[in-house]
Amino acid sequence: MKNRTLDQLRLxxxxxxxxxxxxxxxxxxxxxxxxxxxxxxxxxxxxxAEEAHRRRAVWTRRRWAxxxxxxxxxxxxxxxxVQLVEGSLTGSRFLxxxxxxxxxxxxxxxxxxxxxxxxxxxxxxxxxxxxxxxGRSFCSWVCPYHFLSEWAEKLHLFLAxxxxxxxxxxxxxxxxxxxxxxxxxxxxxxYTVYETISPTGIVSRSLIYGPGLAFGWxxxxxxxxxxxxxxxxxxxxxxxxxxxxxxxxxxxxxxxYDLEKCVHExxxxxxxxxxxxxxxxxxxxxxxxxxxxxxDCTRCGMCIDVCQGGALTFxxxxxxxxxxxxxxxxx
Length: 331
Prior knowledge:
The protein has 15 helices and six strands. The protein is mainly α. β1 (85-87) and β2 (91-94) form a beta hairpin.
């Protein structure tokens, strides 16, 4: 467990997935890898099931509803002056309690070069919420730029299908470099430099107070993602995702993988924002019958929506009953 967690953190900070060694596999995993085979009819049935799952998109619809509702709550509170939530996603006051984005809080404390006591309650509260929900769930369930980027991705895929554009992947380690760079800039300049270019903050403030010149930077990012690199900001660059991924590493909420139910058709990796977290779904890679997806997962649920066999599900440690040990051979 400890080695797997360290490996998942290594992946989150930009490392490449490692191919498992023969001794890494449990007996049950070896048996399943050796016996899982599909016929032509199986593939036909899978294609039909895949189309049905795509049309349903249960978790995607739920996520969009939550994301839109959260951001509308900020906007409507300002527009109709009900003072339910004051501020934006970067920093706000909810029912009188101060709340602050974890990345923004870290930047402020580095800029001021000391722990700001007034921020501790808000930071701890937000941190506890995202620790419980786990992974980068902030990114897919709350971040307004993620929503815009998701629709830009649909346009990118349409243009790529027409062979008008081509995806140019970037190195995932860039996110770690950017995170460290802005942390050093905050410490060295005394200003939260990242907040001036954060698309999350810019879009959130634009929804509440109206767009300004900074929104041009957001449009430029979206154009870059449409015409050059698919989901570049969220996938390779955003330091906020790294912060929340670290906080949610040991969350009780996971996306759980059941090897026995997997047909290895790969649709989950095609829709995933961070497909490296699903590397073990590739045929012959899973080292155990039951595995949890790592902290770089955004918990968006899209992989669950397209999984025909039900191999991917949400689980809660201590609540969801999921077998963890190797299964006994049938008599």
